[in-house]
C-alpha cells in the first residue's frame, strides 16, 4: 500500500515526464560515423585489445555484412540505417580514476539523478556497482572485498586484457558469433560490458549490480556481458537500465552470456526502464538483446527475472540451454507496454540433459496502443529423459486499442517428458476496480494495485533492492492508461 | 505452374511440415484434377458441378494452387431452412476444390472420407448462413503419400460450425482450417484426434478469426504418437479490434508412445480487443502415473492398464460427434490404429 501511494506521489511529481530524461553534457570521444572494418579496428585499438580479439571482431563484422535483419517478430519500425550511427562513444578521460573523488562530478551527478548513490553504496553494503556510462566503465566499488573471495567483477575490456584465457575460452561459447543479426553486430562492435567469474565453491559475498546508461545522442550501445559460475558457486547479478529522453530512436543491441558449471547457480535480474518514447510514439530505445545461459554442468541452475517497462521496442528472449544432467532453468517476466510501445519477448528452454527442469512465468500487460507479445519455445530433445516444464503466461489488457499475443512453441521428443503450458488473457475486472474505488482508493492507484497483484509471482523473485523499485515502475509505466 | 516454390520449414507456418522434402515440385505441377463421389446424399441437398469458383475465404498457399489448378469440383447447397446429410468421398487424388453452402437456418451433416492414396491437395470453401449449422467430420485414414486439405469457413450470425478431424497420418498430412466468425453469436467447435504409428506425420493447422464480438470458439485435440511418428497442432485464435465479448478456448494434449516420436504444439493467441475471455492449454506427457498405479493395484496388467488409459484419453476427442453411426465408425478406426501406435519401436 505504501508503495502504491508513493507511486501516485511520484507520478504527480513527474508531471507525466520521464524521470530519467536528461542529458549529461560531457565531452564525448567518438568513432567516425558508420560501420566498416576501420571502425571495428578503431574500437579494438581504443580498448587496447590483443590481436585474437580484433580478429574475432573482424570475423563477426564480415559475417554480419552477409546477414539480413530478422523480421519474424511482431514489431514494426522504420528501417534502421546502420551507416548513420556512431558505434563508439566514450567520455573523454586522460587517466583512469583511482577513486570516486577523481570521477567527473557531472557523471556522479547523473548517477545521483538515477538514484545510484555511489558514495553511499560503500556504506549501504550489499551491492557493488560497476556503472557503465555509455561505453566505458568509470567506477567500480567493492573490488577489494570481491577480490578477497576470488571473484572477478570488472569491465569486459579489462578482462580481455587481464584474464584473456578465461574470456577466450568462454566468449561466444553460448551465443556464437554467427547466432543472429543483432548478436553478430554486437560481436563486431561491442564497446564494453561486464565480466564476472566466480571461482569453484565460492558463494559471491554480495549481489553484483551494473547500471547501464545510454547517453550520447545517436550512439547505439553494444554491451557484452559474460558471467561464469565455476563448479559449486553462486552469484546473483542485477542489471538496471535507464536512458535519457531523446527524439530519434536509439539502438541497443546487447549480448549476455551466462555459463553455469557443475552445481553452480546464476540468478540474473533485470529492471529495464529505458525511455519508451512519448505519448505519440516518438523516440525511444530499440532494445534488441540476445541473452542466453548455458547450464553446462550437472545440477546447475540459471534463473532469469526481468521487469521490462521501457524501450519503444523490445526484442528479447533470455534463454536456458539445459545441458547438464538435472539442471534447472527459470524465467520470470513482467513486460509492460503503454502508449505506442511494442514488446516481443519470451524465452527458450532447451532440454538436452536427463532430469532437467524448467519453469516459465510470464506476465504481459498492455495499455494504450501498445502491442505485447510472448514468444517462447520449450524443446525436449530425445535424450532428455524425465524432463519437466511448466509454463504459465498471462496477459492483461487495459484499453480497447492495445494488443496481447501469445506464441508458445512446444516440441517434445522424449516420451518420459512432461510439458505443460497454460495461458489466459483478461482485462481488469470492473468489480475489482469498483471494490477499490468504493473504498476510497483513486482509480489510478487501484489499477497499479491490481496490476501489482497480477505480477506478484514474478515480483517475488526479485532481490529486495529491485522489488521496491519495480513495484513503483509498474505504477509509473501505466500512468495515463485509464481514462 | 513450373515455377512453384513449395512451402518448406523455412516458412514459419510450415516449420513442422517440410513439403519440399516430401514431394517433387514436378509431381505437384503435373497432378490431375481430384475426383470425389457422393457416397450418400440424404435430405434436401442440391449437388452440382462447378466449373470455377471465386474463393472468398482465407486459404493457405497450397490451397490457392489447388483452386487455380483444379478443373472441376462439387458444389453442395442446402437451401434455407432445409436439412441434409452428405457423404463426400475422395476417390482420386490431385488438385481438388469444392464449395459447400449451408443457407440461413439450414443444417448439414457433412462426412468426408479419403480413399485416394496418391498425392492430394484439396481446397474447400464453406459458407454457413445465419442460424445455420454444419457438422463436419473428416476421416483421413493411413496413407503413405502427401495429403493436403484446406478449408476456408465463414460463419454468419448465430451460425454454428462443428468440425471433427480424425487423422491417422500419412507421409505428410496437413489439414488447414481457416474459420472466420463473421456474425455475432457465431460459434466454432473444432476437435479431433490423431493416432499415429510408423513414420507417419499429421499436421493440423487452425486459424479461428473472431471478426466480430460475442462469438465463441472451442478447440480440443488429442494426440497419440508411436514409433517414429510426428503429430503437430498449430492453432491460432485472433480477436479483432472491437470484437468484444469474444470467448475462446484451445486445448491440445499429446501422449508420446514411441521412443522416436515427436509432438509439436503451438497454440497461438492474437488479441486486439480488451473485453475478451481467451485461454489455452497445451500439454505433452506420459500417462498419469497415479492412474496407472491405481489400475495395477487392482490387478489390471500394465499393458492393459495403459491401453485402457489411452482409450479414455482419446475417447474425449470423439464425444463431440453427434451422429452415433459416424461416431462408432470413427471409434473402430481408432481401435484399429491403436495396436500399431502402441508397439514398441524397433
Task: Please specify the SSE layout and strand pairing.
The complex is a heterodimer of chains A (483) and B (346).
Chain A: H1 2-14, E1 28-30, H2 37-46, H3 51-65, E2 89-91, H4 105-114, H5 118-124, E3 127-133, E4 136-140, H6 143-149, E5 152-155, H7 156-162, H8 164-170, H9 181-189, E6 192-198, E7 207-213, E8 223-229, E9 234-242, E10 249-252, E11 255-260, E12 265-272, E13 284-295, E14 301-308, E15 313-316, E16 319-322, E17 328-337, E18 342-345, E19 348-351, E20 357-367, E21 371-380, E22 388-398, E23 403-412, E24 418-427, H10 430-438, H11 443-454, H12 456-459, H13 464-477
Chain B: H1 19-22, H2 25-30, E1 35-43, E2 45-50, H3 61-69, E3 73-78, E4 83-92, E5 94-102, E6 107-114, E7 120-128, E8 133-140, E9 146-155, E10 160-167, E11 172-181, E12 187-196, E13 201-210, E14 216-225, E15 230-239, E16 247-256, E17 262-271, E18 277-285, H4 289-297, H5 302-318, H6 324-342
Parallel strand pairs in B: 3-5, 4-6, 5-7, 6-8, 7-9, 8-10, 9-11, 10-12, 11-13, 12-14, 13-15, 14-16, 15-17, 16-18
Antiparallel strand pairs in B: 1-4, 2-3
List keywords for this structure.
A: alpha/beta, 10-stranded mixed sheet, 13 helices, 24 strands, 26% helix, 35% strand, B: 346 residues, alpha/beta, 9-stranded mixed sheet, 47% strand, globular
Report on this structure.
- The complex is a heterodimer of chains A (483) and B (346).
- Chain A has 483 residues and is an alpha/beta fold.
- Chain A has one domain.
- Chain A is 26% helix and 35% strand.
- In chain A, the strands form three sheets. A ten-stranded mixed β-sheet of chain A has the order 4-3-7-9-12-14-17-20-22-24. In chain A, strands 13-15-18-21-19-16 form a six-stranded parallel beta barrel.
- In chain A, helix 2 runs antiparallel to helix 3, helix 10 crosses helix 11 and helix 11 packs across helix 13.
- Chain B has one domain.
- Chain B has six helices and 18 strands.
- The radius of gyration of chain B is 20 Å and the shape is globular.
- Chains A and B meet through strand 22, strand 23 and strand 24 of A and strand 17 and strand 18 of B.
